């Protein structure tokens, strides 16, 4: 049987409409307009396109966005000074520095310089630490979006075996943590994992965050599994595809996310959610 295709796009439309309503309420009741400051360093086309998509989504939701673009020659000190400026500006509720940064800039130092109260990416060690001990924090947007997508399927996560392929700080590690909080049993796999298929075939929920085009075929998937594809890879033809070989795996899975139109739109939606949350925090 062919899997149900889980449209992150449709869920994102629904959630963004709700966010837009809340943004408008905050504006009318407390005269606060949520505002996201985005810093983009360099000319990477993928980063430019992600930032454009984030700004467009902000605009559509009634969230103000500020974009500052800098050449890759910017020094770390100059970048930290811009972050200080936004940290000190009460009209800015979220600060996002698009990654990756040039090699001469220490990414962690930059992330740590953002006030944890404005870290709408959820990358600051304080927010990661709070997440680990189930305290209120900004959750990283892609893992948060994935959990929201799984919850929208009306299947119980509790007791399910989740296998995460990938251990990045941005996706792999936190998505496992968030699903652990939902009472899943979580296994992490990575580039050094031996006999990957024997582990991934045990997954009720398989999350592929590898970064290699179509590497996960049906031989890695249990019948009826939920398959979440986090990969965004560009084929030589210029077409986007995920880490999962969609056409063959959809014949085996019960639910599968497409690329594009799956996890991606949810990532941006949770960024809007976090920015709204930050503005609401200021108002209360
Ligand atoms: N680069 C790729 N994904 C992200 C993201 O979610 N946030 C930031 N700041 N940079 C990224």
TrEMBL record:
InterPro entries in alphabetical order: Aminoacid_DH-like_N_sf (IPR046346), NAD(P)-bd_dom_sf (IPR036291), THF_DH/CycHdrlase (IPR000672), THF_DH/CycHdrlase_cat_dom (IPR020630), THF_DH/CycHdrlase_CS (IPR020867), THF_DH/CycHdrlase_NAD-bd_dom (IPR020631)
Gene for this chain: folD
Gene Ontology MF annotations: methenyltetrahydrofolate cyclohydrolase activity; methylenetetrahydrofolate dehydrogenase (NADP+) activity
Domain of life: Bacteria
EC assignment: 1.5.1.5, 3.5.4.9
Domain Tetrahydrofolate dehydrogenase/cyclohydrolase NAD(P)-binding: 140-282
Pfam families, per the entry: THF_DHG_CYH, THF_DHG_CYH_C
One term under GO cellular component: cytosol
Annotated PROSITE patterns: THF_DHG_CYH_2
SUPFAM superfamilies, per the entry: Aminoacid dehydrogenase-like, N-terminal domain, NAD(P)-binding Rossmann-fold domains
Keywords for this protein: Amino-acid biosynthesis, Histidine biosynthesis, Hydrolase, Methionine biosynthesis, Multifunctional enzyme, NADP, One-carbon metabolism, Oxidoreductase, Purine biosynthesis
GO biological process: L-histidine biosynthetic process; methionine biosynthetic process; purine nucleotide biosynthetic process; tetrahydrofolate interconversion
Matches recorded under HAMAP family: THF_DHG_CYH
Biochemical pathway: One-carbon metabolism; tetrahydrofolate interconversion
Name of the featured protein: Bifunctional protein FolD
Residue intervals of the Tetrahydrofolate dehydrogenase/cyclohydrolase catalytic domain: 7-121
